[in-house]
Amino acid sequence: MKALVVYSTLTGNTKKIAEGVFSAFDGQAECFDVKDAPAPDGYDLIVPGFWVDRGHADDAMLAFMEKIKNKKIAFFFTLGAYPDSEHAGEVAADTEKRLKENGNEVLGHFRCQGKVDPKLLESMKKLPADHPHAQMTEERKARLDEAAKHPDEKDVANAADFMKKVLAA
Ligand SMILES: Cc1cc2nc3c(=O)[nH]c(=O)nc-3n(C[C@H](O)[C@H](O)[C@H](O)COP(=O)(O)O)c2cc1C
What we know:
Layout: E1 3-7, H1 13-23, E2 30-33, E3 45-53, E4 56-57, H2 59-66, E5 72-79, H3 86-101, E6 105-113, H4 118-124, H5 138-147, H6 153-168
Helix pairs in contact: 1-6
Flavin mononucleotide (FMN) binds at residues 9-14, 51-55, 78-81, 87, 114-117, 120.
């Protein structure tokens, strides 16, 4: 089986998780940044990983995933929201739908929180006061504080375990 791990990252969170996922293959896979990724055609299993951008996979990964047809896929993502939130569930469902539309079989996915770029948080302070992202509520502060601790070593280990389970199934 030829396997390909491809990740998209702005600030490094998703790359860390990709390293956990890749470690599960014991060298029996290839791993690329989406910027350098080969065409998925020559592989049996594709493992794309992305950061969440406004409710879905970032544009670079959306473009790459659109090229994957009739393959086995396990995907992963990092996001600012809690991994067990409705928002994270919607991202997973949206991704799965896109992949299945191209005839792919989705074997599972892994998600975890990732610290949000401080530059983005700074720019949100300039939003009009009635914008939902302009308000720093207690709930939002707690969520961002938690995100700031991720991905941690445990997340990376969990990502490796996830991939090992998919490979063993
Ligand atoms: C422009 C932008 C849009 C984002 N949109 C979302 C979003 O819709 N939902 C969410 O939970 N996190 C969102 N985030 C947070 C990132 O998905 C999260 O911090 C991720 O771990 C970044 O991964 P990276 O370090 O691999 O780039 C956004 C971040 C940026 C910079």
